[in-house]
Amino acid sequence: MEMQAHIGYHQVLEMVYQLPQEEVSKLLKKLQSDVAHSKNQVGTQKYKLTKMQKLLLQAPTWSDEEYKSYLEANEHFNAWRG
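RE: above sequence
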């Protein structure tokens, strides 16, 4: 016999806040492990990605500071051209 409960995100969050700190730590470790495992599953039978999607997922990203520098440089170029 299987029972399903439909609990909202905020209700789950309230339940987590009621847990003792060591239980919250265990939950956090378990969730991090599950997320890391699911990221390793990308590209397997569970998720079929195109070559382009795989390339984009492996591509380097900008830090917030690098992106801010890019936006500032872009503004200077726009002002210079405009």
